[in-house]
């Protein structure tokens, strides 16, 4: 039996082949959908990528820095804060992309469940979320770094390595926040709580604007457990060679990588549980 000149067997073979491609490259297909959906507010993301660093650097570089006469760690104040601001931008952007956009996929438009009804596996849908977040975080960090260069806040070409440390902490935030958001079934303001009572305190108490040692000892623990502090310190080592023991630099890298793996594995498991229930 033929249908419009093509055998039914051929149609089945094509369908099986298409399904196999989805199972093989499903993460990228789902990521494409996520990237296309981000185009709706693409202009806002572009404006934020330029406006945020300009405002921060104008206030710090022309404002606060002019009031600070002494160097910090042997470098200018602007050079000191630059790696931390870069990491903070990545952290904040990733957290924003991992709250309501992820919750929407489960609850408000339930697109994740629609994807799961196709040959896509839940873990591939979770991977797509991370790819989409990376597509926002990495360009933001690159733009931010370019503006840091214009403000002469980076002392050498090797400072570009801070793009890696900042992007890493952004993906750590994406993994951990996505893991939590994927467990939320009712929106009771949890996303606002994350931004106000987790992300903001990390920004303020992770040695972003001054060395962590200047905080009282009973507050320094916030920095020690904060991925932002580890990324900021690692960025300072990469940017201007801040002196610290090699074991501490290795600890910064290890903490960030371990948190990334934990969050990524946890998020994939929650996606699997919710989308196969």
What structural class is derived from the secondary structure elements?
A: mainly alpha
Give the termini distance in whole angstroms. Answer: 39 Å
The 3D shape can be described as elongated
- Helix amount: over 70%
Element string (H = helix, E = strand): EEHHHHHHHHHHH
Rg computed from alpha carbons, rounded to a whole number of angstroms: 22 Å
Largest sheet: 2 strands, antiparallel
Mean pLDDT: 88
Tally of contiguous helical segments: 11
User: Beta-sheet strand percentage?
Assistant: under 5%
Number-wise, the strands total 2
What spatial order of strands do you see in the largest sheet? Answer: 1-2
Domain module tally: 1
**Residue windows where pLDDT falls under 50 for at least 5 positions:** none
How does this model look, in words?
This protein has one domain. It is mostly helical and 277 residues long. The relative contact order is 0.13. The protein has a two-stranded antiparallel ribbon. 76% of the residues lie in helices and 1% in strands. The protein starts with a strand and ends with a helix. The protein contains eleven helices and two strands. Helix 3 (77-97) packs antiparallel against helix 8 (190-205), helix 3 crosses helix 10 (227-240) and helix 6 (122-150) runs antiparallel to helix 7 (162-181).
Task: Describe the protein's topology.
Blueprint: E1 2-3, E2 6-7, H1 8-38, H2 42-67, H3 77-97, H4 100-108, H5 111-116, H6 122-150, H7 162-181, H8 190-205, H9 217-224, H10 227-240, H11 246-276
Antiparallel strand pairs: 1-2
Helix pairs in contact: 1-6, 2-3, 2-6, 3-6, 3-7, 3-8, 3-10, 6-7, 6-11, 7-10, 7-11, 10-11
């Amino acid at each position: 039996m033929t249908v419009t000149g093509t055998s039914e067997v051929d149609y089945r073979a094509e369908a099986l082949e298409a399904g196999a491609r989805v199972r093989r490259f499903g993460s990228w297909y789902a990521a494409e959908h996520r990237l296309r959906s981000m185009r709706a507010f693409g202009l806002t993301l572009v404006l934020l990528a330029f406006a945020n660093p300009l405002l921060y650097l104008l206030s710090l570089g022309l404002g606060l820095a002019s009031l600070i006469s002494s160097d910090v760690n042997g470098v200018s104040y602007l050079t000191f804060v630059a790696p931390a601001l870069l990491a903070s931008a990545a952290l904040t952007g990733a957290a924003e992309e991992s709250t309501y956009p992820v919750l929407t996929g489960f609850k408000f438009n339930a697109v994740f469940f629609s994807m799961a009804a196709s040959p896509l596996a839940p873990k591939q849908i979770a991977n797509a979320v991370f790819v989409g977040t990376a597509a926002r975080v990495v360009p933001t960090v690159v733009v931010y770094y370019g503006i840091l260069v214009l403000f002469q806040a980076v002392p050498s070409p090797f400072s570009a390595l801070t793009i890696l440390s900042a992007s890493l902490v952004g993906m750590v935030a994406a993994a951990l926040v996505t893991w939590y958001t994927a467990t939320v079934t009712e929106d009771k303001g949890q996303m606002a709580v994350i931004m106000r009572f987790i992300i903001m305190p990390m920004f303020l108490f992770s040695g972003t604007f001054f060395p962590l040692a200047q905080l009282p000892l009973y507050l320094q623990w916030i920095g020690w457990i904060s991925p932002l502090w580890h990324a900021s310190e690692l960025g300072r080592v990469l940017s201007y060679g801040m002196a610290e023991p090699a074991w501490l630099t290795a600890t910064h890298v290890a903490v960030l990588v371990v948190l990334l793996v934990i969050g990524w594995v946890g998020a994939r498991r929650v996606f699997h549980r919710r989308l196969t229930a």
